[in-house]
Amino acid sequence: MKYILTAIIFGIGYLSAFHCYALGHLTATLKSYTATQPSLPSSSIIELTLTNDGDRIIEVVSDDIPWVNKYGVITNSSIVIKDVNGKEARYKGIMLDRVDHRLRTTTIEPGEKVVRLVDVPKNYAVIAGVRYVASFYKGGIRYLDRPRSDFRNQSDDNLISLMREAVVQPFHFVADKSYSPESVRLQSEFLTQSCDESQVAIFQNSLSQAASISWAAFNEHSSQFEYSIDPVTMTVVGSFSPSPRYTNWFGFRAGTFDPLNVPPLDQEIDDSIFAVAYRLRDTDRTIPPITLTCRCLPEEVNSETTMAWVREDVHYEINACPSFWVAEDFPTVPNENSRVGTIFHEISHFLDGIWGGSSDLHPAPTYNQSLDLAVNNRALVVRNADTYKFYFLNQVF
Fold this sequence. Notes:
Elements: H1 2-21, E1 26-32, E2 45-52, E3 58-61, E4 79-83, E5 95-98, E6 105-108, E7 113-119, H2 120-123, E8 131-136, E9 140-144, H3 156-161, E10 164-167, E11 171-174, H4 181-190, H5 197-222, E12 225-229, E13 236-240, H6 244-250, E14 256-257, H7 264-281, E15 291-293, E16 306-310, E17 317-320, H8 322-326, H9 339-347, H10 367-376, H11 378-381, H12 385-393
Parallel strand pairs: 15-17
Antiparallel strand pairs: 1-2, 2-7, 3-6, 3-9, 4-8, 5-16, 8-11, 9-10, 12-13, 13-14, 16-17
Helix pairs in contact: 5-7, 5-9, 6-10, 6-12, 9-12
Protein name: Lysine-specific metallo-endopeptidase
GO molecular function, one term: metalloendopeptidase activity
Organism: Pseudoxanthomonas wuyuanensis
């Protein structure tokens, strides 16, 4: 009996060891990039190293790691940069609308190292001489510890629930130069790519529909406010009667408020709805016109997975990719991209004197996930570019 128990214990130990070492394992580190070229100042360039030190292929969530194009510009904001007081340096890289919401992963072989260099002043609004901390929004990087082929017939949600997470330690650095909006505009002018006449006509038709819809939505939103005089205090009291449309996408809002002291989040939502409508509808052109390019260069973005993209400081240029032209004007099912929906998504990104603009959340929330955000995280709702797409389209599925 003793020998049988010994054999069983040995077998369990062997299987445990096999399970431990027969899987992939991700180690991720952030550090300063030591460059020999004077044009690449090391203190503001961060090196992310991903190492598979396990025995099997791993699949890393692509949106959890920065994707850097040929020009050193990031196409997703997976890294957050904050100063020592916790103030976030605004992301200035490319913001894009993806073709779909599928889970995309990056394969790393056993023993392989993947290195990404992030030029911070080119992608974040940092100030020279200020100390910052670089970290990941989610705290770590999610991955499957074996190939996706081992998880046949699993949904994306199920795959995410099975993932492990590599914790990445924050990295401290001092910026040696500041972000320059002018350099972004100059690059945009240098790389511009015109569309043909048929594409311009299609875009103008979609843009006209977006402008009309957004202005009607803004007027509807404005009609939900009423103001009266309190007979006791003789002060103005505001009341808000939200439509189901507003509550669905922006969440619960108190019915009464002080017009001179509107809660900041409510005020930003009001500003954002006006900003999208005004950018699309400004007939007097007190702001720059919306311009279109067909600039979807493979060295800048992945043209196969991108509908369109913008840089928030290049007002108000929308760069359309091939998928934009084969899409319909409006979606027919949840999470289907469309031309008008993409225009709402992209126009919400810009940073100007009207509103600070939205962000691309990673991974991008689906239709139902955006509805959930309105219930559970209103602060994130106002940052979610797809919330504006769904709100203005006003489609119920």
